[in-house]
Amino acid sequence: MRKLLPFPLLSLFLWLTWLLLNGFSWGHGLLGLVLAVVLPLGTRPFWPNVPHLRNFPKLVRFVLVVHWDIVTANLAVARLILGSPRKLRPAFVELPLELEDDFAITLLASTISLTPGTVSADVSEDRRTLLIHALDMDDEAELVAQIKQRYERPLKEIFEC
Amino acid sequence: MDTLVEFLVSAAILVGGVFALVGSFGLARLPDFYLRLHGPTKASTLGVGGTIFASLLFFSWQEQALQLQELLIVLFLFITAPVSAHMLAKAAMHRQLRRREDTRGRPWKQ
After folding, report:
1. Enclosing H/E stretch for A4
2. Which residues in chain A have their CB less than 8 angstroms from residue B30's CB?
3. Which of A44, A95, B27, B66 makes an SS bond possible with B39, Cβ 3.0 to 4.6 Å?
4. What is the structure's pLDDT at A149?
């Protein structure tokens, strides 16, 4: 079983994506099942060390928190854009990373970019620091603490121990 | 019931449209490249989100069955938008684009 489905979650995800794309029917269910088995096997070399999902409820919670933040922060950014651009306090911030896994860092960087007001610009060679550009920053320490507490810690709990 | 759905769909389209507009407005108005980078990533979240919710609601109502393919758009957008923003930021730093003088901190050498 482990040999046939090295990444069960990826397979499930591919199957559901296929069904959403093509409509739910027996034929597509079967075809999607074949693809869900074949694709992960074929792309296996691209995933040298996959992080293991340790805490599924936390992942669900994380996704909900991020969606909520996207909505509220969108409103905040809309206000900033419509207000006077002179009042903006842009800044580059370096965020020291605690996450070690590449995939988890990618998720964190994407989350930072998706939540309005911050865009992740770069990650250092040694994967220890993330460079973030903020649209309007009040206090550097506060921003870093907020990102760490709201996004990085849950991600750490989801993927590592 | 029809009126209620119509009302909800219109509201969702309006919300999506307003946020897309604000995003593009930011693109035109903000003073430097790094700041303008924020505009499009924003419009693509709530702007597209609102439009897609409207489409999902409308077609589910019309077909009398849940239509979920639109969710795939959101999914792929959420995967690709941060990547393009990241590439744009990296390119900007590589070219050492001008940033507003009062920007705190500094970009990295590429």
Report:
1. none
2. 81, 85, 88
3. B27
4. 87
User: Does the interface predicted TM-score (ipTM) exceed 0.95?
Assistant: no
- Whose structure tokens read 């900007």? B92
Nearest 10 degrees: Cα torsion A124, B35, B82, B104: 30
Residue B103 has pLDDT above 80, yes or no: no
Q: Is B26 on the interface with A (CB under 8 A)?
A: yes
B41 neighbourhood in chain A, CB within 8 Å: 113-114, 116, 119
Q: pTM of the entire structure?
A: 0.82
pLDDT digit string, tens, across residues A8-18: 788 888 898 88
Q: What is the pLDDT of residues A88-105, one digit of tens each?
A: 888 888 888 888 888 888
* Domain ranges within chain A, ordered by starting residue: 8-46, 56-159
State the residue for tokens 């990296």: B90
Q: What is the pLDDT of residue B43?
A: 65
Cβ-nearest to B29 among A71, A78, A81: A81
φ/ψ of A118, rounded to 5, equals: -135, 140
The partner residue sitting opposite B35, judged by closest CB among A82, A90, A109, is A90
Chain A residues in contact with B93 by the CB 8 A cut-off are 121-122
What would the two tokens of residue A62 be? 């994380």
Domain covering A56-159 in this structure, CATH number: 3.30.70
